[in-house]
């Protein structure tokens, strides 16, 4: 557990080919089933302080309690994802780690006090998120997502689908609808 961010709940990757990445992860690594939200606009998004328009595919699955995310950006502009790909290329090198916090604002204050900088932030239909980097180690990116009731429901359903998963129906279109 991080004293600043809380428990690491997710590891994420950036790809230029969602199908290739998910096929490897479910066929070779045995992780799944995958729930894929396609061509999602990210509202109120800012990258390095400037507003951006961004559209992504985001796939989620669980391996035990650890959530795995794969992101593919479709919009042409600069973002934390294109910055990473420019330095490391595409593949299954971790892009970021994430915690889900019910103390979103307090975590933000603690991260900024420790010298972390906000690199990208936005809001999905389920609430805000922010990516931090520290100048001492700019390749370490940590995302904090506000754990809203909607997100908790979605994440719980994805985790439950992975328990005892037999490999059938490995890629599922859309994320589960929140049950509130």
UniProtKB/TrEMBL annotation:
It holds the Pfam family Glyoxalase_4. It comes from the Bacteria. This is Glyoxalase.
């Amino acid at each position: 557990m991080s004293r600043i961010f809380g428990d690491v709940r997710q590891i994420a990757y950036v790809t230029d080919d969602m199908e290739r990445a998910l096929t490897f992860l479910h066929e070779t690594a045995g992780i799944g089933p995958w729930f894929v939200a396609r061509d999602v606009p990210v509202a109120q998004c800012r990258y390095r302080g400037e507003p951006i328009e961004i559209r992504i595919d985001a796939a989620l699955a669980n391996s035990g309690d650890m959530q795995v995310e794969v992101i593919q950006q479709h919009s042409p502009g600069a973002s934390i994802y294109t910055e990473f790909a420019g330095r490391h290329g595409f593949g299954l090198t971790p892009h970021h780690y994430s915690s889900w916090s019910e103390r979103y604002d307090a975590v933000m204050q603690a991260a900024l006090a420790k010298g972390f900088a906000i690199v990208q932030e936005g809001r999905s239909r389920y609430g805000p998120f922010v990516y931090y980097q520290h100048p001492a180690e700019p390749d370490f990116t940590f995302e904090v997502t506000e754990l809203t009731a909607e997100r908790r429901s979605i994440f719980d359903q994805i985790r439950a689908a992975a328990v005892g998963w037999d490999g059938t129906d490995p890629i599922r279109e859309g994320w589960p609808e929140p049950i509130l």
